[in-house]
Amino acid sequence: MLDRLIEYTIAPKLIEIKMKKLSFFVCAGMFLNLGSYGLLLAAPADVAPTPDGKVDPVDALAAWQMMLGKIPKDMDADVYPIGNPDGKIDMDDVRTILKHSVGKVTITKSSKAIKIDNNSASEAFTEDASPFSLTGMVITGTSSPTVTATLTLSNAGAGTLSTGGSGAVTSTFDGTIWRASGALADVNTLLSGVTFTPAKNWDQNFTMATAVSDGVTPAVTGTKNVTVTAINDLPTISSMTNQITAANTATNAIAFTVSDVETAAASLTVTGSSSNKTLVPDANIVFGGSGGSR
Fold first, then answer.
1. Which residue from 116, 99, 83, 87 is spatially nearest to 25, judged by alpha carbons?
2. Could you say which of 23, 104, 125, 255 would form a disulfide bridge with 99 (CB–CB 3.0 to 4.6 Å)?
């Protein structure tokens, strides 16, 4: 084994160096410090992007290429942010990966950050609309086999979210929160099939808070703004039964109720018209009561 530190500059290709039965790989154009126990202690790696299921010198080469900007930094990887990463890809990462490949340190693979498409996509409908599908949300990125997704209405009176089942996962809705938890593929299937049924006469804007977590990395959240186009609902009046009375005799008071979605009942004006004005002139139709009871 070496008793002193040696600095090597390696030609532009991946080379295997064997030294007293200690074998390790180094990458093109890198400066590596070697010591009596192999590579010097290095900082935890930020990434090693060759997804073959093992951490090896090829990952170190890829990290080095990332550091130089030769390949994208968002590739899948065998080593994701671990330990105390510094948020950048540098020689410390390359050294750590190489040291792992010769058994001098152990790198524990952690999960990638969750991604979800359309978790903040806006929605819109017209008051009293039929049920409609939400803009499709798709969870990607996570390396965890299971996830939990929730949709939370800012106002429970706005409507309801549909539920269903996929594989071993069944979604639930408690009046405010829609939830599905289980295998990633099943949760994605349920998310793609969620429909919203607007409550009758609901005409106010509201939001849906979205959240996805895998129990390992931080949850990803978003907000779907829902815009509602209001319509002018017609006022309503309760039915009245036919009346019988003697000639020249007024009927008893006929009770009925009035209401309107947009206008307070007290502000509604009631008028009457006779189909036989000789028998019952319009002026003889007199209204009383107040508010919704007339």
1. 99
2. 104
The C-alpha atoms of residue 77 and residue 89 are separated, in whole angstroms, by 13
Q: Could you give the CA distance from residue 62 to residue 277 in angstroms, rounded to a whole number?
A: 94
pLDDT digit string (tens) for 192-214?
Answer: 999 999 999 999 999 999 999 98
Contact 160, 229 (CB under 8 A): no
Specify whether the CB–CB gap between 192 and 136 falls below 8 A.
yes
List, edge to edge, every strand of the sheet that includes 177-183: 123-126, 220-229, 206-213, 146-153, 177-183, 172-173
Stated pTM of the model:
0.56
Position 63: which residue type?
A
* Separation CA 135–CA 128 (nearest Å): 19
- Least Cα distance to 59 among 89, 29, 85, 22 occurs for 89
Q: Give the residue from 95, 64, 65, 97 showing the smallest Cα distance to 78.
A: 97
- Which residue in this structure is represented by tokens 């000789």? 278
Written as one letter, the residue type at 244 is I
